[in-house]
Amino acid sequence: MKELSIEHFEDYKKQMELGILPEVYKGLIEYMMSLRTYFKSNFPEYLVGSFYQGYMDMTYFPVVPISLKNSNLKFAVVFDHLKIRFEIWLSGKNRKIQKEYQNLLKQKELDKNYIFTENPDSIIEMVVVENPDFNDLNSITTEIERGIEKFVKDVSDVLK
Q1: Would you say residue 53 lies in a domain?
Q2: How much is the average pLDDT of 115-139?
Q3: What mean pLDDT comes out for the span 122-151?
Q4: Distance between CA atoms of 12 and 146, rounded to whole angstroms?
Q5: 30 exposed, middle or buried (CB, 10 Å; 0-12, 13-18, 19+)?
Q6: pTM of the model
Q7: Of 1, 144, 152, nearest to 67 (Cα)?
């Protein structure tokens, strides 16, 4: 663990006392949990995995298309706390599988929206909501839904 000074905790305490940080974090977690429930209830073609609340770095839940279950691939709906945006990541069951698919996908022509990163937890990523308007959760949900559908289709087409 990174060494934390008393000043770090004093700053943290000030932020907590303001009440904004806990309120925003709680609202975000509630939205992400409801988004997971939405996918689980409305998309029987997906296996929706466990919710990961995170350490205020990222919050996510995995979505596995039944059609790709045997490929050991999964998609993750991710909220990046630092960049304040929603992303979708394609990941593998383990690092070896991720490397194999990353090498395969690098040889394919993919939409410019897909990003190969150095992130050890993903193969490729796509930003789906850059500047979310949390006053319009339905629009955020719609954009994430469209993003998942596009990402799944594009990956499935490439793997055929």
Answers
A1: yes
A2: 95
A3: 97
A4: 37
A5: exposed
A6: 0.91
A7: 152
**Residue 13 counted as domain residue:** yes
- Show the tokens assigned to 27: 């609202």
A 10 A CB-CB count for 77 gives: 23
Residue 151: CB atoms within 10 Å: 23
What count of residues does the chain have? 160
Q: Is position 1 within any domain?
A: no
Beta bridge mates, 90 = 75, 124
Residue (of 159, 95, 157, 82) closest to 123 by Cα position: 95
**pLDDT tens track for 77-91:** 999 999 999 999 999
Q: Which domain holds residue 115?
A: 6-159
pLDDT of 27 reads 95
Q: Where are the alpha helices (DSSP H) in 43-136?
A: 95-106
- Section 21-47 average pLDDT: 96
Average pLDDT over residues 54-78: 94
